[in-house]
Amino acid sequence: MERIRIGLVGCGGMGTRHLHGLRSLKQTPFNNVDLVALCDVNKENVELAAKEAFRLLGVTPRTFTDLASMISGIEMDAVDVVTDPSVHHEVACAALEMGLHIMVEKPMAITVGTCRMMIEAAEKNNRVLSVAENYRRDPSARLVNHLLNAGAIGRPYHAILHHLSPGRKIFITPWRHLKNKGGPLIDMGVHYTDLIRYQLGEVAEVYGDVRLVEKVRTKSETMSMDYEFYRRRLQAMSTEVPAYAEDVSLAQFKMTDGVTVDWNVGMGGYGSVGLELILGDQGAFHGFGNRGARVKMRNSEEGELDQEGMLAIAKEYELDPLSKHFFPSGITQGDPEVDWKLIALEYHEFAEAILTGRKAEVDGEEGMRDVAAIYAVFESSRAGRSVSMDEVVSCDVYAYQDEIDQALGVAKSKD
Ligand SMILES: NC(=O)c1ccc[n+]([C@@H]2O[C@H](COP(=O)([O-])OP(=O)(O)OC[C@H]3O[C@@H](n4cnc5c(N)ncnc54)[C@H](O)[C@@H]3O)[C@@H](O)[C@H]2O)c1
Fold first, then answer.
1. Which atom of ligand 1 lies at the shortest distance from residue 45's CA?
2. Buried b (16+ CB within 10 A) or exposed e, 277-311
3. Pair 129, 363: CB distance under 8 Å
4. Angle, alpha carbons 254-257-261 (nearest 5°)
5. Which of 67, 68, 279, 364 has its CA 20 to 30 A from that of 143?
6. How far is the CA of 243 from the centre of ligand 1 (A)?
7. Cα–Cα–Cα angle for 391, 91, 230, rounded to 5 degrees
8. pLDDT (tens digit, 9 = 90+) per residue, 41-50?
9. Measured between alpha carbons, how far is 243 from 245 in angstroms, rounded to an integer?
């Protein structure tokens, strides 16, 4: 099979998981990606990743601490951007200008303006720009999407997406509490705006409120995942860090076809709730679908169905061949490798887009709209009124993000 040669930039927590994703892909007959280089501004991180690459993939990629040397130093087709999101635009635009295709972790960038810079660079250089959004690639999300489009719950009219987790622990990394690095609501919220848009179509209008509740964050003693890099990252973390980025949000999304979505996402304070519902005039889904999630459905004809029952009534439902290979039962809950397999799916689809000219599923426009939808909550909060998605996508309502662009040094002059 024809393969692309890729360089991975950003060898931190998610960069490590991308190496596992490459191994998952390599173990299948579908492998179409070869890792040829690793790059990180932190030498220790790139060296640890090189050891992991050898252990997982049996290859010794060249290592670099700056992007330009990597691109000029070795032949490759594409760059996988897994740095913190405040530099996604910088790394991606530089690589696009040097003729490389880009896969970039979510959030695509930390303002709509910087997303636009990436789209323009990809168009100008005629390169593929793909956003690694994993949640929608889980078969649970694919199944809900199929049944929703087949009319299994009739006409959707309302949805609820509530994810509130209490506490004042550092949310994964200290940079996730800095507005100019993205903030926790951008980091998580973009997954949810992507799921909302995937399942329910385009956002028309948003009324929202954001607050900073926890102004100081303390180090957690536990890790969400057990990797050598995560252990080192935790060890190096300060016991207490200041938080400047808002950490709770409340919003109403109005979709273009009239569905309203009730949104409550936060990671601070005392409240705790987790609920996902899509309501239609003939039934409801419990769950939008998510990495390793299980979904349920109830409708007037079938009563209550678990995911197995949903699969049984899903006529003409078919996963793509690689998803079928990874998840033959169609259910990912309990699969210890689900994270890596979804990353493998992202790589495979990206390489296919390069090799066959097929459009990437979450391309620059989609990735930018996911970012715009979460910033619509912030911009509405700042403006004190509801905002249209058009105003946010066009950067006409931009007060909150303008401050970030100023800090990044990319703000457009007003005259
Ligand atoms: N899809 C998911 O489920 C998921 C999960 C975790 C993280 N992520 C995303 O992955 C990205 C990275 O997150 P993380 O948790 O791995 O962060 P991290 O802080 O652990 O790692 C970031 C790495 O990037 C490096 N870096 C920073 N600037 C660089 C530059 N200009 N050039 C080269 N390297 C640079 C850092 O030194 C660090 O090693 C973020 O966009 C995050 O939102 C996605």
1. 39
2. ebbbeebbbbbbbbbbbbbebebeeeeebebeebb
3. yes
4. 30
5. 364
6. 19
7. 100
8. 999 999 999 9
9. 6
pLDDT (tens digit, 9 = 90+) per residue, 94-131?
A: 999 999 999 999 999 999 999 999 999 999 999 999 99
Helices 228-236 and 13-26 cross at an angle (nearest 10°) of 180
In ligand 1, which atom is closest to the CA atom of 91?
Answer: 31
Condensed to tens digits (0 to 9), the pLDDT of residues 211-225 reads 999 999 999 988 778
Half-sphere exposure of 167 (CA within 13 A, CB side): 9
Helix (H, G, I), strand (E, B) or coil at 102: strand
C-alpha closest to that of 279 among 143, 141, 161, 389: 161
Q: How many whole angstroms from its chain centre is CA 20?
A: 17
Structure tokens at 408: 């990044």
Q: Are 46 and 63 in contact (CB under 8 A)?
A: yes
pLDDT reading at 415 higher than 60: no
133 within ligand 1 shell (Cβ under 6 A) = no
pTM, two decimals, is: 0.97
**What is the strand order of the sheet 156-164 is part of?**
303-305, 296-299, 283-286, 273-280, 156-164, 260-266, 248-255, 203-211, 387-388
**Tokens representing residue 236 in the block:** 């190096």
Structural domains in the chain, sorted by start: 4-135+345-362 (3.40.50.720), 136-333 (3.30.360.10)
- For residue 5, give the amino acid letter: R
Closest-CA residue to 15 (of 198, 179, 232): 232
Q: Which residues pair with residue 62 across a beta bridge?
A: 37
Sorted by sequence, the CB contacts under 8 Å of residue 27 that are 6+ apart come out as none
Dihedral sign of CA atoms 28, 30, 35, 39 in order = negative
Peptide linkage before 107 cis (omega within 30 of 0) = yes
Instruction: Evaluate: CB of 41 within 6 angstroms of ligand 1.
Output: yes
Q: What are phi and psi of 284, to 5 degrees?
A: -150, 150
Determine the atom of ligand 1 nearest the C-alpha atom of 67.
Answer: 32
Q: Does residue 7 have its Cβ closer than 6 Å to ligand 1?
A: no
